[in-house]
Amino acid sequence: MTKRKLINTIIAYTFLYTLILAIGLMLYFWDGSANKMYYSLFKDLFPILITIPLAYLGFCFQRRSNFMLALRSLWGNLITSVNQALLYTYNQNNSREKYFEVLFNLSKSIDEVRSVYKNLNESEIQTGHYPFESLKTIYKIIETLGYGDVDSKEMEVVRLKIRNNWKQIRQTFLAEFDRSEPTVFDAIVDENG
Question: Quick one: which of 111, 158, 154, 157 has its CA closest to 136?
Fold first, then answer.
């Protein structure tokens, strides 16, 4: 469950609980029936009215937790495959085996993204759009580069393209994580401002 979907669910259930509370208060103050019959009925049903949404919220938090585990695993695999692609650009004479290994790992990461995220605007009629197009671009860059003897200037250009695409992936991908600033950290302070 994505962060947005979880937040929307929490907001909806907060509204539901507020509504239940308001109904209970209205029945308590305005129930004119004998022995406050409607309020007594509400009071008897109150545990059920509270328990069912609470169970669903527990389910939502469990789904979010499972989603985060899948996301962290995917993140680690993305780091590995993109860094392999970057390392590939430092060797001007890559073997055919190394070339296919890098493409295989990038392809694996592309499909692993599909196991965690569905395509944007996907429906039964349309396949939609892949959510991290920059990853597919990195694959195409390496595929176009090929293997064997490659010019060092071309490798530099390719490396820069991969880094730029990786920055784009990181920026959009990490937004889904629930990350906090560290309490204690190690940072280099620039004395010049």
Answer: 111
